[in-house]
Structure formats: structure tokens, C-alpha cells
Amino acid sequence: MTTERREPAVDADERTMLEGWVDYHRQTLAWKCEGLADEQLRTAAVAPSTLSLMGLVRHMAEVERSWYRRVLADEDAGPMHYSDEDPDGDFRVSGSDTWQEVHAAWQAEIEAARRNAAGVPLGEPTRGKHLRTGERFTLRWIHTHMIEEYARHNGHADLIRERLDGATGD
User: Measured between alpha carbons, how far is residue 69 from residues 51, 120, 150 in Å?
Assistant: First the structure.
């Protein structure tokens, strides 16, 4: 499978632009993981960091879940891979983690995000609140934050992928 990335049109309306850039960055992370075996995806390629491509995807599934389910829609959706005792558990992978399972969980969270965001006005306060601060946000803010979150971690993915097999690209 070849991941197709599409930038939003330069003349798109605000919502289409924001959703387009979030999707572009989702597609970029998928592209960075493409064609690698599970063992490679679990490999922490830059010592002493334990960061791996599979860990990044698990983390982004958690981030999607937190913002679009808990904060935007006020769903009771607990964490999948981390806890109060292990706040970075989403980044940690083991030999039993598979790309098929991690990718499926990430895609399910992306679909939930799209479903929960559909029809919500960009400037309306969220139904839920941030777990730590108790703040409400807007969908505009969440989309913008997700662009930042994916862009930052896609930079990590670039370096990890290059270290694994020499593959580079924007």
C-alpha cells in the first residue's frame, strides 16, 4: 500500500483547510511507517531514546482519543496505553505489539475524531474539559493543536526512519 498525501487547496475555506492539514500530517506519519516490518517499527533508532515509529503511532492514537473524544465530545474514553503510574506508556512498545493492531487502533481513533468533529462549529466551546486544566477549547484550537502535534512527531519520525533504512523525504 502506498500512502497518498494531499495538501489542502490554497483557496479552501477555514474548516476544509484545517481538516486538510490534520489529514495531511496523519498521512505523513503513515507514510513514514510504510514498508517496514514490525521489528523495525518497534526499534528505538536513536540512543539513548526509546522512541520508535510504533510508539509514535500509539501516542498519536492516544492524542486523537484525548482531544476528539474526551475534550471535544465529552466521551468517557480512558487511556489505552498509559496510566498515572506510567504516563509515557503509550510510547513504550514490546515484542508483542504488532503494526496491524497499533495501526487499527490509530485508524479507529481517527475515524472517531472525524465523526465527533463533523458538524461542530469551529468556534463553539467543547462539551468536555481538559483533564488537567479543566479548560474548554474550540474545535478550531483542537485542529490547530493536532497539526502542531503531528508536525512535531513527524519530525521525530523522519529521523527514526532515516536511521532505520536511510529513507528520507518531506
Answer: 25, 13, 17
